[in-house]
Amino acid sequence: MAQTPLDSYDYLIVGAGPAGCLLANRLSADPGVSVLLIEAGGRDNYPWIHIPVGYLYCIGNPRTDWCYNTEADPGLHGRALKYPRGRVLGGCSSINGMIYMRGQAADYDGWAAAGNPGWAWRDVLPLFKRSEHHFAGASDLHGGDGEWRVERQRLSWDILEAFREAAAQSGIARIDDFNGGDNEGCSYFQVNQKRGVRWNASKAFLRDIRQRPNLRVLTGAEAERLELEGGRASALWLRWQGRALRVAARREIVLCAGAIGSPALLQRSGIGPRPLLERLGIGVKHELPGVGENLQDHLQLRLIYRVEGVKTLNRIVATPWGKLGMGLEYLLKRSGPLSMAPSQLGAFAKSDPGQARANLQYHVQPLSLERFGEPLHDFPAFTASVCNLRPHSRGRVAITSVDAAVAPSIQPNYLSDERDLQVAADAIRLTRRIVAAPALAGYRPEEYKPGPQYQSQADLQRAAGEIGTTIFHPVGTCAMGQGQGAVVDARLRVHGIGGLRVVDASIMPSIVSGNTCSPVLMIAEKAAQMIKEDALRPVLPAVQLQVRGEAPLLREA
User: Is-annotated flag, keyword Flavoprotein (predicted)?
Assistant: First the structure.
């Protein structure tokens, strides 16, 4: 192997999603260290990334999405699901629903109580505020001068206002803000946009620092495996421009590849459950049974209702004039349907009075379609999507090959726990009560999916398996904690391996009660703080990057 001395790096960050972008920003703020940020996808210069409704053209598009699929899931009557994950600068923040959501204070207090000091709500609230640029300015709950823009939405729909009133008539109170620690109630989502344009993590955390001489951003580079030496992660093998590169790190390698990518990379490196590694002939470099286990996701049940006498997006897009009007409104005002987040109205509620706190989240949309990527229905309708915020079902992620180009097996095991089946049935009942409230009566709502024929407990549980689909919130596959199933400690260091951390949604020991993007930014903010603290310790001697064959010097891609 020819060895060519090239740049060396203090920190290697794998994955330029929300966590990777923020970490690159915070770590490279110290001019005395060097940072390499590695992204398998390309630059975020695809126009549909930035027009909010463009998520419809980014999900399922290999330009921006890994285009994963789950295994056939027994809980979904054998259906396999498309499982979008961002593969572009900004990661999932470039293709997601743009909803700014923190979850509930009790989520984080639960992490701390489970043996993870420093992760309680009182600890993480300042970290949420640090990166936040809230439209209302700084307050006890919000930050006013961070990079992560939070704005109100720029359009309204009569059908959504009627649903909000119907929710109030059903006992779900109107509130102004979901992000104070207790999100029970109904309100409009705040979104990560800047004047009607998507605000992704690349814009927030990379745009203004790309010229830092100590930061290099490498796109189109897929991480293949880690190299361990003396109980430490010493290097990373990449595939870039058709060549294999070995990049060595002086301080740390930080995995920010997400709940699918991070466990897959660990497993390809011989770090994970022994039976899997031996079956694939990888060899066990470091046994950690929890790698890839504990997969959690929010399963959404998309209830669809036909309506009369009210505007919905279905009818607007049905004519060329409607589409032209949408385009002109966005071009001239940066408002209207093209500025829409996928969901505008939200609600958090209890599936039954015995719940200690809200365990359901609604995403209500003035539109309907069979599934993402397909045309809207040709009749006016709205969708009330409801998910169980704290599922008991657990799945797993497992590689099927040592080849990084082969997608891993994803088995969510939705509705495999009887308690989740009960919550699903109760969620459908609650949705029907809201829709039957007087505020919606004038629009004559008629249930299209799952359909009024589903009435008994068995019927409703069967319906959940028929209409349930991911809401794109996988977490937990490199769980933080102690004991048999834990992968990282409370400082996000991989158990038993020096110089290696995981910083993304995979470290969540239990899923947060809401959307996951902004909690990942909080995790990265805390990780940056801990990495800097640990950097005060003596560092290893300088190491260099080796290239197999001839390759040009690494440049910012």
Answer: yes
